[in-house]
Amino acid sequence: MVEVDKRDFRRRFPNLAEELESGKGTYEVTNVNGEIVTEKGGRDPFSGYTPTAIDYLRRCDNESQAEETINYLAKKGEISKEYADQLRKVLKDHGLRGFGPKREDDYYLRKAGYS
Asked: What is the enclosing helix (H) or strand (E) of 86?
């Protein structure tokens, strides 16, 4: 494999560098069922997946962030007031990890087999 400096690559191939950095011309590969296929040939387990409030809360570092997340989701109408109250009760009674273990950076990429 040949290593190339990004600046040198941009200087030598400006249009290609722009296309690669912008993501233009990229396509998702799907199988016959229309499911997105990963680089390793498997099905992407998160194709079409919409994170839940719990998914967001499991990424929080502290209870203050969790409370802000709940407030934001309720304000935007992503969750109902009743569900927000239930989440606050879990947070108060069981703490932040009452929603499950923390999801670290690249959690979804690792689960999908990308890293």
From this structure: helix 81-94
* CA geometry: angle 110, 68, 111, nearest 5 deg: 10
Contacts of 81 (CB under 8 A, 6+ apart): 74
Residue 36's beta-bridge partner residues? Answer: 30
What DSSP character marks residue 99? G
Going by the DSSP 8-state scheme, the letter that residue 36 receives in this structure is B
The residues near 60 (Cβ < 8 Å, ≥ 6 apart) are 66, 69, 96, 102
Closest among 22, 48, 49 to 34, alpha carbons compared: 48
pLDDT in tens, 30-76: 555 555 555 555 555 556 667 889 988 988 999 999 999 999 999 99
| Tokens 């998702």, residue located | 28
User: Could you tell me which of 28, 29, 6 has the C-alpha nearest to residue 18?
Assistant: 6
Percentage with pLDDT > 70 across the chain: 66
Tokens (6 digits) for 97: 């990890």
